[in-house]
Structure formats: C-alpha cells, structure tokens
Design brief:
two-stranded antiparallel ribbon; Topoisomerase I, Chain A, domain 4; alpha+beta; single chain; 6 strands; four-stranded antiparallel sheet; 2 domains
Amino acid sequence: MAYNLAPMKGKVGEIADWLAKEFSSVRTGKASPILLDNVMVENYGSKTPVKFISSITVEDAKTLRITPWDKAVVGEIEKAIAAANLGLSTAPDQTGIRVIFPDLTAERRQTLMKVVNEKMEEARISLRKERERVWNDIQDKEKAKEISEDEKFRLKDEMQKIVDEGNASFDTLVDKKKIEIEG
C-alpha cells in the first residue's frame, strides 16, 4: 500500500497562504487597500467590512481613497479606521475619505521586522508539527507492517523535500516583506 503525502503538501500550502495573509496585514509605508480588509464599520445596525460598503482605490504611494456608496456612513468609516488602531490618519472630504499612510520611522521598521519574524516562526512551528504528525503516522504504518522499512525511509526523504520546499517558500515571503519594510 502506497503512502499518500498529498495531504501534507496541501497543509504546507495552507500554512504558506496563512503566512502571506498575515504579512499582508503588516503595514509598511506603502498604501495598500488590503490593510483595510479587517476594518469593520457600523452600518445600519450591523458590522460590515469597509470594502463591502465602498470602493477603495490607491490615490498615490501614501494615500488611499475610500468612496462610500452611501455618504451617510463617512463618519462611521472614519471611526472604524481610528478604532482599528492601524496608525493611519484620515481626512474626510465631500466625496469620501482620504487615508494617509505616514512614513515609517527606524523604530517602527524594527517593530515590523519583529512581527514578521514572529509570524515566520509561527509558520515554521506549524510546519514542524505537520512533519512530526506525518512521520509518526509513517512509523506506525511500518510497525503495523503496512509499509516496509525501505518504504519508510523513502517516505522520510520525500517528506523532508516537502518540508524544505515549504521553508523555501516561507523564506521567499519573508524576503519580499523585508524589502517592502526597508523600501
């Protein structure tokens, strides 16, 4: 019976996707609509993501423009952005709100790098746990005589290749984010 490593590959992909999503929420000095994805606005009695009640466009490298479909929610959007504590300033005008991204200080860059490294370590821990789970499963199958000892070691090598590929993809994500932060 052949052992299937496809679920492990899928899990490594999920961890990489999670890491990319976490990195997208780490604010650098560049304006990005993704940063507002988790901002929830009080809209007619319910909390709604700002992206569902307005259009968000990049005006320039340091500014986003939020144009709500209902002008009555401009104040609520402004409150929600302030409550999200993203370190952004807002400037309402007659058509919507400008969201201004301040320049990053050296201290803020260091803090962001710490966050990036913490998220990277969380991803590596998840990957190690998955590797440990699969390895234990392989060993159990070998003890139960479902796979041979040779097959066990071949699977261990394949499993390690998957782990190495996962770590390489994590490193690529971190390198991109570091360039963005230092940028």
